[in-house]
Design goal:
Elements (H helix, E strand, L loop, with lengths): L5 H22 L4 H19 L1 H8 L5 H15 L3 H16 L3 H9 L2 H6 L3 H13 L4
Helix pairs in contact: 1-2, 2-3, 4-5
Length: 138
């Protein structure tokens, strides 16, 4: 089992509640308050887990500036009461930030018993094999 410090546990709780409020806000037809609260909790929990310096290093790398700007602009748009456009910007930024690790996530999900069956569909398995050879999705 992974050993977490007290601050990392607080960060995991903040991020967990943030994801919960984000999903609940989307389910309630992009409720602005829930989405804004979820964004604030998620972004405030991230430095508790990885540390403030590592968080800044991750978001402000030269090759990740486009993804970071879309992600942070999406959070700002949600806070300024444009929830649908903000969530689209956040999703695109999240994709750009983590596109290099998506083949690893797909490989991990294919090992899960029930989800692994989905990854064996002919079209999806060919696309995933192609992306895993390239190393990233874009």
């Amino acid at each position: 089992m992974i050993s977490l410090t007290d601050t990392q546990r607080i960060g995991a709780g903040l991020m967990g509640f943030g994801v919960f409020f984000l999903l609940f806000g989307v389910l309630l037809y992009f409720d602005r308050v829930l989405l804004a609260f979820g964004n604030i909790l998620f972004v405030s929990g991230l430095p508790f887990i990885t540390g403030l310096q590592n968080t800044f290093r991750f978001f402000f790398q030269r090759q990740k500036m486009k993804g970071s700007s879309f992600f942070l602009a999406g959070i700002l748009l949600v806070l300024l009461r444009w929830p649908v456009i903000g969530m689209l910007c956040e999703s695109y930024g999240f994709f750009l930030l983590f596109k290099s690790s998506l083949p690893l996530v797909a490989e991990f999900l294919s090992k899960i018993p029930v989800l692994g069956l989905i990854f064996t569909f002919p079209g999806l398995s060919m696309v995933l094999k192609k992306f895993s050879e390239r190393g990233s999705l874009v």
